[in-house]
Amino acid sequence: EGTGGGGGGGGDDDGNDEKTNKFDFTTKVNRVCAKVREVMTQAELEGVTTTGQIISSGHFLFPILSTFAKESPPKLEEALTMIKNSAFDQFASGDTAGMNTKRSPLLLEKAQNSIQYLAFLANYELLFDTALGMYDFDLAKAVARNSQMDPKVYLPMLKRWRNLPDAEAKYEVDVRLKRHDSALKNLVQLGKDETESSEVAGSDDAHFEKCLSFINEHKLHKLGLELYERHAHYKRKIMVALGEQLLSEQKGDVALTVFLAANPSDINGAKRAARMCGDWKSYFAYAAEDDRDEGSGHGTKESRIRAVAESIAEEVCFKGEMKGDMQKKRESIAGAARIYLDYCGDVASAVDMLIKAEMWSEGRRVSRLHSREDLVKMCVDAAVSYGQKCLGDFEDRISEFTKANERYGEVLEIRKDAKREEGDTGAFDFHQDDGGSVFSMASNASNTSLQSNMSAGSVGSVTSVSSVISAGAVSTFSITSDVDVNKHKSKFNKLGGKKKKKRPKKKGPAAKRRIQPGSEEELKSLVMTLKSNCIDEAYYDIIAETIEFLAQVGRVSLASQLFDSYNQMRVAINDSQQNRLSKAKAKEEDAKKKALKEGHDHDNTFVKIDCEDEVDALCCKMMPDALEQVFSFF
Q1: Do 554 and 377 meet the contact criterion of CB atoms below 8 Å apart?
Q2: Backbone dihedral region for residue 299 (phi beyond 0: left; psi -120 to 50: alpha; all else: beta)
């Protein structure tokens, strides 16, 4: 009846959105429970229901407990609090006829019945933990009384917690319930309470170490910093501990800032973090401030720093060579050169690093600064070697790009046709057929540098499209399998006289995956081939710098040859793109005319593949205007 009476007062509070006037089903159970509970609680306060029935306090106790238990998440704390209040109200009112008044009100029949009813909706273990979380040990005992929990276990435990200081008992309960944030707060409070009552010197530090251990164990550094905001000494220790935690997680860049943000900064920690993340500038900036021994610990401080500098230079160079981005790779190797020059005084190693980074002009500058003409010659020879390799590289790129671009146009049309037939469903999955496959995933390659065995730099590598497209497959793709070839073999035919043994298929990573002609995978391979054979920004900069350097050191003939070869490649790649786009546009126009002629809506059949914009944008830039003007005279 109470529920029905409450329903008439619905409105927006019952789950209706004022703007959309739609019911919010995500919270409907909670809203219904809250409304039912509100109506029943109001009826108990007034002592009469909406139908005029006279009721006493606690009349709707079980239904109200049900509304708490059925919410999501269940409001068990509120339910247990209601049971406790109801029991104490009954006890205070003197309504204890036939009951043992010496016992706790929570152990009386009504309270126990209420707990049993609530346990029917939520298990005893959950109720027990909830009561513990309220730090109400009498309530926890009342909950455990009718459960299957062993009294030999929970009674001594509850008794022990009752006898502990308040903060310590709460801390242990929080640890049991894995409420680590609350546990740390209570542990810190326990330290404050002990300090006020203790006269032992150093007790603060001993307790803080316990807190710090807990902070490290549960990664509560943020909360720890908040709790010890006014204690600079302890706050610094937490900051250092946080830095160490970040180092263990291989987050050197974050740890570096944390170590330096500590007051005062932890220089040793900052150096270790800087070394981990490859920030050699920060490392050496603080190396002079740290009095700790470097390296083996022998010799002067300068000699120790030099020994460490050599080690760090090797690390920086190695990490740089591992980077996929050519520009970042050059920057890292140039950084190693700077370390050799500034902290080791090793000009030869510095120039060697600059050569490895294809920074010919900088290598020459450093060599001349230190009057090392032998190193100047080394820079020139390295640039010459690099330029000669570029000539062959450009020819390969022209061949591979044009072949792949032609096939890309064909496969793109195949994919569009398939998409029109199947609908716009994204990628398509083709069953792999060894006999019908003439493609290999081994075609994919990056646009990285090929390191020379000499001290010269690197040349951008070329992806071989022949590994993607078979020799006879540029315009026509054969999908004839061994079964088709052997179709006419017989005992009268020498070709089929011997039974061919089946080769076991390779398994595991060593086995090459085959690509179905015209498939989505072939399209992806072709896109990678086109991208890797088009000059990227970093490689373009190296080529321009190499041409300029060769011209400046008197190798004008090679510089001019390299300039012309690059322009030939640029024209060939850009023309290939223009031709493909022109053909595609012509086909699109024909399709539009055909659709209009047949009375179809061309826009409904227009399909675009995700990779089109990226591939269409591929092109080679002209050389810088200064170089264009220089070579206009030769």
Answers
A1: no
A2: left
Q: Which ranges constitute the DSSP H helices of 97-228?
A: 109-121, 124-133, 137-145, 151-163, 166-176, 180-197, 203-218, 221-227
Query: In angstroms, rounded to a whole number, what is the distance separating the alpha carbons of residues 62 and 68?
Result: 10
Q: Nearest-5° angle of CA 475, CA 481, CA 486?
A: 125
Q: Is 448 helix (H, G, I), strand (E, B) or coil?
A: coil
Closest CA to 436 of 480, 466, 397: 480
Question: How would DSSP label each residue in 582-597?
Answer: HHHHHHHHHHHHHHHH
Total Cβ atoms within 10 A of residue 289:
11
Cα angle 471-473-474, degrees, rounded to a multiple of 5:
90
- Percent over 90 (pLDDT), the chain: 55
State how far the Cα of 459 lies from the Cα of 358, in Å rounded to an integer. Answer: 10
pLDDT band at 231 (very low <50, low <70, confident <90, very high): very high
* Tokens found for residue 355: 């050569």
427-458: pLDDT as tens digits: 444 333 433 333 333 333 334 443 333 334 44
- Single-letter amino acid code for the residue at 319: K
Summarised one tens digit per residue, pLDDT across range 352-392 is 999 999 999 999 999 999 999 999 999 999 999 999 999 99
| Separation of alpha carbons 367 and 383, rounded Å | 15
Contact 276, 259 (CB under 8 A): no
Nearest to 632 by CA among 572, 551, 538: 551
Chain centroid to CA 496: 57
Nearest Cα residue to 396 out of 525, 572, 546 = 572
Task: Look at residue 311 and tell me whether its pLDDT is greater than 80.
Answer: yes
Measured distance CA(269)–CA(239) in Å, rounded: 11
Rounded Cα distance between 32 and 67, Å, is: 9
Q: How far apart are CA 427 and CA 508, in angstroms?
A: 25
CA distance 76 to 65: 9
Q: Is 54 helix (H, G, I), strand (E, B) or coil?
A: strand
Question: pLDDT tens digits for 24-72?
Answer: 665 888 999 999 999 999 988 888 887 788 888 888 999 999 999 999 8
Give me 169's structure tokens.
């008992």
Rounded to 5 degrees, φ, ψ at 497 are: -65, -35
DSSP 604-624: HH----TTHHHHHT---PPPP
For residue 404, what are the contacts with CB-CB under 8 A and spacing of at least 6?
465, 468, 469, 526, 529, 530, 533
Tens digit of pLDDT for each residue in 119-128? 999 889 999 9
